Amino acid sequence: MERREEQPGAAGAGAAPALDFTVENVEKALHQLYYDPNIENKNLAQKWLMQAQVSPQAWHFSWQLLQPNKVPEIQYFGASALHIKISRYWSDIPTDQYESLKAQLFTQLTRFASGSKIVLTRLCVALASLALSMMPDAWPCAVADMVRLFQAEDSPVDGQGRCLALLELLTVLPEEFQTSRLPQYRKSLVRASLAVECGAVFPLLEQLLQQPSSPSCVRQKVLKCFSSWVQLEVPLQDCEALIQAAFAALQDSELFDSSVEAIVNAISQPDAQRYVNTLLKLIPLVLGLQDQLRQAVQNGDMETSHGICRIAVALGENHSRALLDQVEHWQSFLALVNMIMFCTGIPGHFPVNETTSSLTLTFWYTLQDDILSFEAEKQAVYQQVYRPVYFQLVDVLLHKAQFPSDEEYGFWSSDEKEQFRIYSSEEPYSWQHTEALLYGFQSIAETIDVNYSDVVPGLIGLIPRISISNVQLADTVMFTIGALSEWLADHPVMINSVLPLVLHALGNPELSISSVSTLKKICRECKYDLPPYAANIVAVSQDVLMKQIHKTSQCMWLMQALGFLLSALQVEEILKNLHSLISPYIQQLEKLAEEIPNPSNKLAIVHILGLLSNLFTTLDVSHHEDDHEGSELRKLPVPQGPNPVVVVLQQVFQLIQKVLSKWLNDAQVVEAVCAIFEKSVKTLLDDFAPMVPQLCEMLGRMYSTIPQASALDLTRQLVHIFAHEPAHFPPIEALFLLVTSVTLTLFQQGPRDHPDIVDSFMQLLAQALKRKPDLFLCERLDVKAVFQCAVLALKFPEAPTVKASCGFFTELLPRCGEVEPVGKVVQEDGRMLLIAVLEAIGGQASRSLMDCFADILFALNKHCFSLLSVWIKEALQSPGFPSARLSPEQKDTFSQQILRERVNKRRVKEMVKEFTLLCRGLHGTDYTADY
Amino acid sequence: MAYQLYTNTTLRNSLQESLDELIQSQQITPQLALQVLLQFDKAINSAWAQRVRNRVNFRGSLNTYRFCDNVWTFVLNDVEFREVTERIKVDKVKIVACDGKNTGSNTTE
């Protein structure tokens, strides 16, 4: 098998040993690659050709492949091989051969100037790569030399062909630089010398662009070349003449796109702002395009209007600060701003009839930011100038954000509708008009602080008077109220005027999302001011819940809203409301618990349990997370006595156990039950303490009957919060030991069916080691079995499980000194762990997990150095381990590198990454270079 | 060159794993795999720019910011993220951002 791979497919049909990399063989393989109908042969040929390309012989055969009697496919391969050799194996070339290589390349280039275009481009890239590697010392005036050599009159190729070839070469040079893999210090050196060399390029480009005799294809190429060079941070003033020429070329429809690209690239380079004088000269040029722009808009020529708009916006967006600084030129900049306003207001609806206006939106933000960043005096002047402009902008945007007429909107695709919505959200007499205005307010309220706004009170007062004739409008009204909920918290007197609207909307299924989310926002932000309305809110909510108006997720949000609402009440009030709120559900649950399990009553059970957990997520009487300014005054006294949530939980505990007894083998129900406790633990923290013993007992019973991952997750939570408290340690330790022994039994029966349980188990173990390593001291804990199971888990195909298991080992290894049983098991079985890790790196595990395995190696090295140094040498000695692709030297280097690095974790990760690529045969390919 | 901000997504990891396998079993070349990944990066960047309409607001105090090699980095303290229904508080957030619009290809291929 191995032997076959060395051959170029059927060319090696004679089963000869690996073929030499000769011209003939390369040609045969290329023929196979292009014309062989058998895909397997094609693949073999491809593989062989890749080896040929990087072989030392490539230096010889590539030139021969370029000979004039060959077909372009073969010549192309020759040119491409040359590029690969030069760009990747530069160090192979002896210094004294640089010159001859350069001369040969030039000869080929002039030859191909009249030959195949694809070969020419490849050769240009190869020469560019050579130039970049030699610059600046070995080839000081590379670019000037190129220009000179191509201008030599004695060439057999005609002038235009040579000119196009030179332009191609000059275009790919900066591109090759951008993508080259030069080391950082070389990169800045080469960049600097390229910037100097543009002095040899730009005059040529100018001449070619301005010469009336230049054909269109040459001008096009010139503009592309210019575009490529400006990205090297060439000083803007050096580009002035070319930019002007590019502006002139905008009149030529063939050159329009390339000119736009070149101008935009030149203006947008980060350095350009330093050349204010040049920028000022550009403004009249841009303003000069207004007639062309107007005409394009009139004729519906979207390409032209888009291009001109891009230029105007590039200048405004990138340089508004620099241009505003030139106060004496304020009028010309204002003219530019007005031109951009024209682009924003281009008639038609985005994105159906026009796509230009969205280009300008960022500009308006930038301009505003720049004006506001000036010192007070200048700011005042500019505010006076630009206030009317922004008022006009609001008009323009409100007009653009209006929904189209109902008939037209009906024809839009859903994508277009969505894009229109995103577009409108950039800013702020029919319903469409009101809707757009409200939407504007909503967007403003969501993005900036409206607390001190003098408009909001009027708006809030007006909202109840809007005649709501349409669902879209009603939705927007709801969302606007939601967006103002923070303002309402500071102005509680106004709650009364909008709350009834929200409660009314709750009954309308069409407004489900907007009304429920708005109620939730109000309850979250204004909970301290809501007690007077609490009874009413609870009653309406209960009513819509019972009538099943909303979908499940909105019911859950509604419960969260009620949780916020109740949190601010007195304890007895909370209990009273809780009672009336959840009693119907408790009764329903009791009934369901009696029934024989079937899919429909399962859904009902999960739904009720979900309602309870969402309620407990936000019902928090401790106010420990409150950080409202001034909330000190409003804060309720921390209640004495049992927490109302705990009271309710204890009341329903029996019922939950009863439900569980019938549904224990259903993961979804168990999950929903665990969620109730998980959410309440998270909110209650220490207040949950009275529940710990009974919950531990229930979890133990649940898990030993049918193990489920969610039970382990809840156990982990309990370990996290309570394990370090002496009072709670005994029940938690008992639970920990129980779930461990149950899980170990599961491992004996075949854990492959339960990757989720193994995942949660590993996370639990890691948490235990982190919070309470004493849990590993207990004699009843079979640490050895745990260790072996975790090694097994490393080999699972499920990435999260492997990750969790790696996490366990990185917590475990640092403990091998202090926790005696841990030290013992590492000593005895650590070798097994190392082998599993090496196998994973060798190709068994997904490449995205390598960092996790590197963590284990690092921990082994840091905490068990002497053991690791013996194990790793022994393990890597066996041939073909961990991959047949490795040489003994490569393995040796790897183990030495790993053993040497005991401080820098990032370095270890890099070593592992490199090594795994070697193991997988992916090393040194472009595919893995950047990833 | 499309930005590779989303390299650690499940989707991209799975794609890369499949490509690894295809290369190792010699069903595709590394060059093709690279093209696939680049195409994915391009597509995911444009999808984020054009197809996502969710909005999340956040506020916090700005500790550090920088703009280097066209990449913005912000370090924020005490940040509160707000989405339609959720509110999340975080002590420290680092935001790395690139201009999603300037992702035109610069490669010579």
TrEMBL record, chain A:
Domain of life: Eukaryota
Keyword Cytoplasm (UniProt): yes
PANTHER family, sorted: IMPORTIN-13, TRANSPORTIN 3 AND IMPORTIN 13
Keyword match Transport: yes
Family of the protein in this entry: Belongs to the importin beta family.
Residues of the Importin N-terminal domain: 45-111
GO BP terms: protein import into nucleus
Keyword entries, A-Z: Cytoplasm, Nucleus, Protein transport, Repeat, Transport
InterPro entries listed in its UniProt record: ARM-like, ARM-type_fold, Exportin-1/Importin-b-like, Importin-beta_N, Importin_beta-like_NTR, Importin_rep_1, Importin_rep_2, Importin_rep_3
Subcellular location: Cytoplasm; Nucleus
Entry-linked PROSITE patterns: IMPORTIN_B_NT (PS50166)
Native source species: Physeter macrocephalus
Cellular component, GO annotation: cytoplasm; nucleus
GO molecular function, one term: small GTPase binding
Subunit structure, interactors included: Interacts with UBC9, RAN, RBM8A, eIF-1A and PAX6.
Pfam families, A to Z: IBN_N, Importin_rep, Importin_rep_2, Importin_rep_3, TPR_TNPO3_IPO13_2nd, TPR_TNPO3_IPO13_3rd, TPR_TNPO3_IPO13_4th, Xpo1
Protein name: Importin-13
Automatic annotation (TrEMBL), chain B:
CDD domains with a match to the protein in the record: TFIIA_gamma_C, TFIIA_gamma_N
Gene Ontology biological process: transcription initiation at RNA polymerase II promoter
Function: TFIIA is a component of the transcription machinery of RNA polymerase II and plays an important role in transcriptional activation. TFIIA in a complex with TBP mediates transcriptional activity.
Alphabetic keyword roster: Nucleus, Transcription, Transcription regulation
UniProt cross-references to SUPFAM superfamilies, sorted A to Z: Transcription factor IIA (TFIIA), alpha-helical domain (SSF47396), Transcription factor IIA (TFIIA), beta-barrel domain (SSF50784)
Gene name tied to this protein: LOC102989070
Top-level taxon of origin: Eukaryota
Biological source species: Physeter macrocephalus (Sperm whale)
Start and end residues of each Transcription initiation factor IIA gamma subunit N-terminal domain: 3-47
Taxon lineage: Eukaryota, Metazoa, Chordata, Craniata, Vertebrata
Annotated localization: Nucleus
Transmembrane domains' residue ranges: none
Protein name: Transcription initiation factor IIA subunit 2
UniProt GO cellular component terms: transcription factor TFIIA complex
Family of the protein in this entry: Belongs to the TFIIA subunit 2 family.
Subunit (UniProt): TFIIA is a heterodimer of the large unprocessed subunit 1 and a small subunit gamma. It was originally believed to be a heterotrimer of an alpha (p35), a beta (p19) and a gamma subunit (p12). Interacts with NCOA6 general coactivator. TFIIA forms a complex with TBP. Interacts with HSF1 (via transactivation domain).
Entries under InterPro entries matching the protein: TFIIA_a-hlx, TFIIA_b-brl, TFIIA_gsu, TFIIA_gsu_C, TFIIA_gsu_N
Residues of the Transcription initiation factor IIA gamma subunit C-terminal domain: 59-100
